[in-house]
Amino acid sequence: MTNVQVRDIAAEIFDGPFGSHLKTNDYTEAGVRVVRLENIGSLKFFEEKETFISAAKYETLKRHTLKENDVIFSSFISEEIRVSLLPKSWSGKAINKSDCFCVRADSTKCLPKFLALRLASRATFVVLGADIHGATRPRINLGQLKDYAFDLPPLPEQQEIVRRVEALFAYASRIEARLSSAQKTVERLTPAVLAKAFRGHLVPQDPTDEPAAALLARLHASTPKKPVSSKRPQR
What we know:
Blueprint: E1 2-5, E2 10-14, E3 27-28, E4 32-35, E5 52-53, H1 55-61, E6 71-74, E7 83-85, E8 94-96, E9 100-105, H2 112-119, H3 122-129, H4 142-147, E10 149-152, H5 155-199, H6 212-222
Parallel strand pairs: 4-8
Antiparallel strand pairs: 1-10, 2-9, 3-5, 4-5, 6-7, 6-9
């Protein structure tokens, strides 16, 4: 295992176009996609959130073109690191914004999935979180990401780590699905149980027992009433 910086295991690292190079009025209803912060989750890429630029605008920004399995890293860090892999469907058809860093891993040194998992870890947050700046939206710059150092195991060990983590994620997803199903069952069950309870269907009933309404009426009749005082309060 060797200690490396992100720059050591990357074929390319770049951010998106700044300022006037890409403005809000450059966005179109269709065309080439733009990866924005809302697309990047914690090891999740939200494809349904789409922003486009025209083909003509893309020609001026094509050096920012993203490829499948690029590691997309959010420069804004609050309670967690947001990083994800670019899906195949966006490969060659998207660019990144300035606040979305792209790390294109050299696959002969580091697996993209391993790098994404490592950057998403709590250990990374502790280190980079200490360097964040910005009062309202704390963020790091591209240089800080390039300088981030971590221990890199050999490729076979990276593959095994990825396999085990994915297995744990799959197991957690199954548990979450079972919990969700159980919660829905409880939500349907509770009103039914209460209805049976008030009808007296939850326990065996004695046929000689009087109805609950009759019992309540008898209890009410047997309750002594407080005498009404005829004395007027003294002044």
